[in-house]
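During the second year of the project, the team shifted from modelling isolated chains to modelling whole assemblies. The rationale, set out in the original proposal, was that interfaces cannot be judged from single-chain predictions alone. As a representative example for this report, we include one of the complexes processed in the last quarter. Its constituent sequences, exactly as entered into the pipeline, are reproduced here:
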Amino acid sequence: MNTFGTLFKISIFGESHGKWVGITIDGCPAGIALQQSDFTADIERRKAGAAGTTPRTEADDPILASGVFNGHTTGAPITIVFENTNTRSADYEALRATPRPGHADFVLDKKFNGFNDYRGGGHSSGRLTVALVAAGVVAKKVLGEIEVNATLVEAGGNTNIEAAIDEAIEKQDSIGGIVACTVINLPVGLGEPFFDSVESLISHAVFSVPAIKGIEFGAGFAAVKMTGSRHNDAIIAESGKTGTNNAGGINGGITNGNDLYFRVAVKPTSSTPKEQMTWNNREAAVAPFQVKGRHDLCIALRVPVVIEAVTAIVLADLLLRNKF
Amino acid sequence: MNTFGTLFKISIFGESHGKWVGITIDGCPAGIALQQSDFTADIERRKAGAAGTTPRTEADDPILASGVFNGHTTGAPITIVFENTNTRSADYEALRATPRPGHADFVLDKKFNGFNDYRGGGHSSGRLTVALVAAGVVAKKVLGEIEVNATLVEAGGNTNIEAAIDEAIEKQDSIGGIVACTVINLPVGLGEPFFDSVESLISHAVFSVPAIKGIEFGAGFAAVKMTGSRHNDAIIAESGKTGTNNAGGINGGITNGNDLYFRVAVKPTSSTPKEQMTWNNREAAVAPFQVKGRHDLCIALRVPVVIEAVTAIVLADLLLRNKF
Amino acid sequence: MNTFGTLFKISIFGESHGKWVGITIDGCPAGIALQQSDFTADIERRKAGAAGTTPRTEADDPILASGVFNGHTTGAPITIVFENTNTRSADYEALRATPRPGHADFVLDKKFNGFNDYRGGGHSSGRLTVALVAAGVVAKKVLGEIEVNATLVEAGGNTNIEAAIDEAIEKQDSIGGIVACTVINLPVGLGEPFFDSVESLISHAVFSVPAIKGIEFGAGFAAVKMTGSRHNDAIIAESGKTGTNNAGGINGGITNGNDLYFRVAVKPTSSTPKEQMTWNNREAAVAPFQVKGRHDLCIALRVPVVIEAVTAIVLADLLLRNKF
Amino acid sequence: MNTFGTLFKISIFGESHGKWVGITIDGCPAGIALQQSDFTADIERRKAGAAGTTPRTEADDPILASGVFNGHTTGAPITIVFENTNTRSADYEALRATPRPGHADFVLDKKFNGFNDYRGGGHSSGRLTVALVAAGVVAKKVLGEIEVNATLVEAGGNTNIEAAIDEAIEKQDSIGGIVACTVINLPVGLGEPFFDSVESLISHAVFSVPAIKGIEFGAGFAAVKMTGSRHNDAIIAESGKTGTNNAGGINGGITNGNDLYFRVAVKPTSSTPKEQMTWNNREAAVAPFQVKGRHDLCIALRVPVVIEAVTAIVLADLLLRNKF
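Output from the structure prediction step:
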């Protein structure tokens, strides 16, 4: 389903080339100051425009359609909508015969018996992440002193992001990246022992973001090469402060008061300018194929603020559930 | 919460040193043949006993307490219970002053104001995975021809598992591992575009398993070093069959009919025989600490069948939701 | 929360005097023909205009903002929005000091610490039922041959509705009514033994509709005066057809293939033109009070189509959950 | 499904003639004193034994199988189990050909393709209400000063319960009744404007109880004969205290600080000793039928404590959700 959360619940809707994309946030406490300008910074961070990002630009002015009154949240559901203005649906008409490799075209067509809105990925488009970012802005306000910070730490296997982008432009082939996320000022005790472990909920939300293919908490995959005595984070104060942070701030699924830390793998943008081979339904054969339309060479550049958003959404939910 | 799933819903309960551990499965279709012996193989795979695993052994005979009648599921909730017989609670009494590093002792004590059952990790113990395995047995029956297969592919950074265990025993320090999971015979179309993507749901379930710290689908973290033209899986047949499987069988959160493939990182067992330094509440200082009790040197050895179980649970749920 | 349903899930948003009211439907199958004109009949039935209904009229043209493409549902979330055009917020400013008796003014002010949008009841307004009606139109399409039919059978204690309205207009005091709902062509087997009994889900949805204070299935409250031998519906055919229908088509929470039948009590409109006494915060005393604004003398006139809508929503959900 | 609640979540399991009936409570706060003797009073109130109740008696000693340690709740799921000892399954074997009128035999057989445990109603039996009562005992502890009180106010249409029972015994035909429930000391603000209105949640829970066919809040069905000026409860103090309580303590779905009041209709016990006509599958015709087994002539006698339990469960959930 397209709904997520328990007490801070979001429902996402819209299509890449439809009228709007939007999100409804149900359960946000009343009395939080909220206005259109609060969204500007995060929406700008997500926007296209830098080298390696798509030339499609949208105004992306959020319409606060409900749940806000006199500059504050009211306790009623908050719906935030973004108009789609800069769409070129014609780009996609020709492609129906050839499901784009790496994209959801093929699976959506099968799952929805051909009724899906195929233009620009439809409902499955990365365009919808603007709605996640908007919900993230609201969630961050719920978090108060808790701060979520995500950055792109690697692109195309290179920690020098700029050089990696230049190389991708030169090669005209897309690249992926790694986004690292740190959360500070967390209380001890968020999360539940089993199915609502902090790792469970964050990974659930993170894998909703298009192009994410891996996540690791703390030492993550590197932990498998450590011994227990090295991996264990010694507690060095009554507050629970640890000397190392191999656990990424989580023990037994519950925040331990240290920084929450995780990294996510962003695959290379599926829409690469390079010619590819794939199935052509008209020819009933594998045939050469080239993506048209406007796309990011490194979608990972735009992912950090989305990861921040979904992380803030999860933590806002857990914070509201807790009986502090 | 300790409940997971939409149409195939599980609720887990019990403590390591309590009367029982168990699980209730709500939503399993009626008419599936089910008897006690169906559980034997998977429960044996999870059991302690091999080199590197804990000497604590349990009979682990499942009690089918409800939802089964005349050898078949009835459509009513299925409750499966395991008695805890081999508990030595005295082992834990002395440790209360010293929250074990890497364990949830500290966070549980804070979260539950000291009321948690601290014996052997209580409700957060790996002991509860026997209940997950039992639910997995039922889920696998719902899956029919879909087969889930997980194996330990690396321990302590070594693909020769036996050698890695020997080294751990020699060093008397615990080690981690990597479990790879493959699912075959999946239909196209399981999963939802946003929050119920297959990756979202599987990762949610997998991170409920104690000691898991990372997950990657298909090429996963290695994808970030690939270009798009290399990472994209060319579709080579009308069925959706792809030449490579870097996507791990999932596009846009939805199964594409190829094998589902993911890998998980299992941290080294927190209870290592090696002496460690950690906070001692009685001394109000960092002090040396050594775990007693009976523990696995490489808990990863016992994890594959648990990963299979939670994967089967997620897929059974998605299969029941689908309108095939 | 403002979300309801399992596989056919609705999320409602908006305020009486805000920009929009709307609803998102998540889980509607793809391929259902749907266009704006499909909504006209039900929206007209809900509309004000008849004797005894409010002079406030809205165009109420549904905007199909997402989930519909080429005249069919796509399988993605369907968002339907209605603009609020005919609002007179000034009517409400003066009333803040006096929470209107029978309304939610007092409880909303307390629950949301004064941050709620108090204009015209805000999010709690009956205005939002237009969104429920719209979701009902979609749900009815999912139901296929199953038909839901609700009518006002009694107003002000009188089965002659017209006479009752005339009397209310003459007395200038609002009245209530009873709505009866019948569903035909139901299959045997919808609903679950415990918490998702058909009665549980329908009553849950029905009591979301403002002004509803009672519900009874089949013989309902009259059943308490019957003996078991009279109340029991004899099964008279292999299909499950019964001679009487005191159970209202439900046994043990599950549809039995006979007509589903229930009645709901609609209280008199809280906004009555008659002078009333109530608490006045400015005077810190009980004081006379008279409602201004535009209101229905018999809101029950507009309720039947809303009851149909929520009933259809519940049944669509149950139908999708079933494995027919 | 057989799970209910958001933060205080219950999962029910078991069958009338199976090994156990039980319930798991997920989300109960840690640190609440809880022991076996706490359950005695409410379990006794539910028990058979009085005139007009079934001769089947069970010890009904609750087994606190998890979530309780050192006499207090731990914050982990609480599972409470009751053994079924006094079962006579043979009573039911002969009846399979004749689905009992008023019972769920026919619908369960169809819904579960004949795989349901048909003995004594199986999972749909009133026997499972002992588990609801147990969860209610825990919920009441969460409620603190809030008190829930339900009583049988009418049986067989007679306010003299004793006389009504005597008449039923004499006539050898079962009768129904009305249970009234009052909750005192509620705070203002529990419940949500739309789908989680207090009426929605309580009615959802109440209709999970077998034999309930109607519910009305405050004046309920009598409200439809009142004018608005009479039905509206004048607020007479700053606290929200009202002079009358026609709303039953709920405005706009939210508690208003006055007593919560509702009434439920309990149908006559379906198993009446009187001969009835119903479908006989063997004869493929309508034929005379007489219930054997042990049954209550007036199940309503045992219902009040169950209504209290489910009401307490709903209110505990709402209380935990609230951010007081």
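Chain A has one domain: 3-321. Chain A has a mean pLDDT of 92.
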